[in-house]
Amino acid sequence: MQVLPLVVLDVQDAIDQPVWADKNNPDYVKAIQKLLAHWRRNKWPVLHVKHDEATPTSTYHTHGPWNRIKADVAPAGGEPVLIKHQNCAFVDTELDRQLKALGAKSFVLTGVVIHNSMDATIRTGKALGYHIILPKDATTAVSVTAPDGRLFDAQTVYDLTLAILGQEYAEVTDTQSLIAGME
């Protein structure tokens, strides 16, 4: 069986701050927890990616009070934590090297937010030749304001981003189907 790592991206206390409050899928952490439990039970590889932002006003600021990985999805049993400083988890990190060391040609990506770091990581991963599996219930979106002032609500952002990514860049599924297909 091919190694299928689970990657948990940017799920830090920062995402619970008011600027991120209008999430369309507040239960995304529960889906990630189910996936983590399944991976850990099977002793499959889990990689955590933590965002350390240089901008002091960011909720993800490296030395800010909300920078730690959420306790609900914290690394266990020596699971590696890769640090990123850009929106893409492949830029200036060990993610590609770690995946290659595991012999992975595919991986499951979970985390936040679908239209930012998740999107950038998926597109780059695809360009690097990876098959990316995206459980849609293990991610979330927030509203986005366009340059002209139009507001796109979180559900619209989520639906549109998944539609775009699912056409070319990732295999979109859900946690239950993914786990069922692996048993």
Question: What is the CA–CA distance across the termini?
Answer: 12 Å
Task: Indicate the CATH architecture.
Answer: 3-Layer(aba) Sandwich
Average pLDDT for all residues: 96
CATH class: Alpha Beta
Helix content: 25-40%
Unreliable stretches:
none
Total DSSP E strands: 8
Give the helices and strands as they follow along the chain: EHEEHEHEEEHEH
Strand content: 15-25%
CATH superfamily: Isochorismatase-like
Tally of contiguous helical segments: 5
Number of domains: 1
Which properties best describe this structure?
Rossmann fold; 183 residues; alpha/beta
Please render the helix and strand layout as text:
Layout: E1 6-9, H1 28-41, E2 46-51, E3 81-84, H2 95-101, E4 106-111, H3 114-127, E5 131-135, E6 144-145, E7 151-152, H4 154-168, E8 171-173, H5 175-182
Helix pairs in contact: 3-4
Structure commentary:
With 183 residues, the chain is α/β, with parallel strands linked by helices. It has one domain (6-182): Isochorismatase-like (Rossmann fold, 3-Layer(aba) Sandwich), CATH 3.40.50. It has five helices and eight strands; from the N terminus they run βαββαβαβββαβα. The strands form two sheets. It has a six-stranded parallel sheet, with helices on both faces. The chain has a two-stranded antiparallel sheet with strand order 6-7. Strand 1 (6-9), helix 1 (28-41) and strand 2 form a beta-alpha-beta unit. Helix 3 packs parallel to helix 4. The longest helix is centred in the C-terminal third of the chain and has 15 residues, at 154-168. The chain starts with 5 loop residues before the first strand and ends with a helix.
